[in-house]
Amino acid sequence: MSDSEHPVDLKSYIRRCAAILFAVVCTTSLMIATSFSHIGNGWAARVAIILGIAVVNALLVASYLMHLLSEKKMVYALLVFTVFFFIGLMGLTLWATNDFPPGTAIH
Amino acid sequence: MEIPYTVQNRPDTGIYNAKVGIWLFLASEVMLFGGLFSAYILLRVGAAPGEWPHGWLNVTLGTINTILLALSAITTLLAWAACKVREFGKFKFFHACTIVLALTFLGIKSYEYRDKFMHYEVQLQPSAKNRAAGEFADGHLVAKSGDFDLAKKTGFIKLHGHIVKDRKELMDLRSPEAQAAQHEELTIAAADIKKMENYAPRHNTFTAIYFTLTGLHALHILGGTLVIFYLWGPGSRMWKTDPERFTNRVEVSGLFWHFVDLVWIFLFPVLYLT
After folding, report:
1. pLDDT-derived band at A44, boundaries 50, 70, 90
2. Does A51 touch chain B (CB under 8 A)?
């Protein structure tokens, strides 16, 4: 959450939280609607749309509830390293997806 | 001995020590869940076409849990804000809400787990009455006779489900064929059963990764709830002696709780919707 020295107004927090809850409900509904629809002409496109909405949802939570919009440099520095290694982890996974030893039967 | 920088920000980092600690811990947690998500991707992409389960999980319950966690993340934030404005009564109220919401989440998750453990796939003997070779029954266990013993071939079970000719029929439960299937009470004698297995982690790769991911997440919820309960109950004594430090403890536990919510934001679509 945010830097401790900023003054806090509980009423404004409650208003902000209500807006975020509404946004989370909307994004969740949108994901469900996409999942049951035939948007995107195929499974892969639907998954991409759903995960895109999930990222928006996560950014909302991280930005406002975890106060990442107004954090100190130290936290951002830690996050840069985390994102770097996370991308590396996922990148290696995707890179290895089609990496089969010679002679492997692929269906 | 006094622990330094529990309240004051460290000059070099700009934040107090516990906050550096929790962010480092969350970074390691990102890699832990990231590793499991990458395992899911490899399993999902590597599955043969039509052989990855679709629609096996209850979207309604998953949605309710998503809203519950979002609400609990908000009450955690409000509990911290109440501490900042020195309203201890409101802190107690918001944190109590968080605990109730977290326990409800775990209750729903337990119900989902129970549903999977009661769901059986029963392979029938080719010699079973009125059954073609390769058929099997799929459904929830309703009852089991007292003398039921699969090894001795005695007794019977009752399933609420239907007879399936090909396992592929079960892979997409959102398909019109699966939706149209008539579920009824089936009584199956032990002598007619070749093999029976519930939808536990060992059932297939989907259930294995589902239970691993959601089980680890549920453990985080449980751990977070214990910490929040401590801060709400016995740990709240610190409010009288050192309210600033107590507020920082609430902030740090809140950051962990928001991370747990973030993980669920990805778990829900990946497991329930795709």
Report:
1. confident
2. yes
CA distance B192 to B122: 10
Q: Which CATH superfamily is domain B17-116+203-273 in?
A: Cytochrome c oxidase, subunit III, four-helix bundle (1.20.120.80)
What ipTM goes with this model?
Answer: 0.88
Please state, in angstroms and rounded to a whole number, the distance separating the CA atoms of residues B92 and B44.
Answer: 44
Q: Identify the closest residue of chain B to A60 by CA–CA distance.
A: B262
Domain boundaries, chain B: 17-116+203-273, 119-198
Rg for chain A (alpha carbons), in Å? 20
Q: Which residues of chain B have pLDDT under 50?
A: none
Residues pairing with B198 in the sheet: B120
Rounded to a whole number of angstroms, the distance from the CA of A97 to the nearest CA of chain B is: 6
Which residue of chain A comes nearest to B76, CA vs CA? A65
pLDDT at A5: 53
Asked if the Cβ–Cβ distance from B251 to A4 is below 8 Å, we say yes
Highest mean pLDDT among A10-14, A69-73, B204-208: B204-208
Per-residue confidence band for A3, with pLDDT thresholds at 50, 70 and 90 = very low
Q: Does A22 touch chain B (CB under 8 A)?
A: no
Please indicate if any CB of chain A lies within 8 Å of the CB of B82.
yes
- Residue whose tokens read 């977290």: B102
Determine contact: A19 vs chain B, CB below 8 A. Answer: no
- Nearest-Cα residue of chain B relative to residue A45: B274
CB B139 within 8 Å of CB B115? no
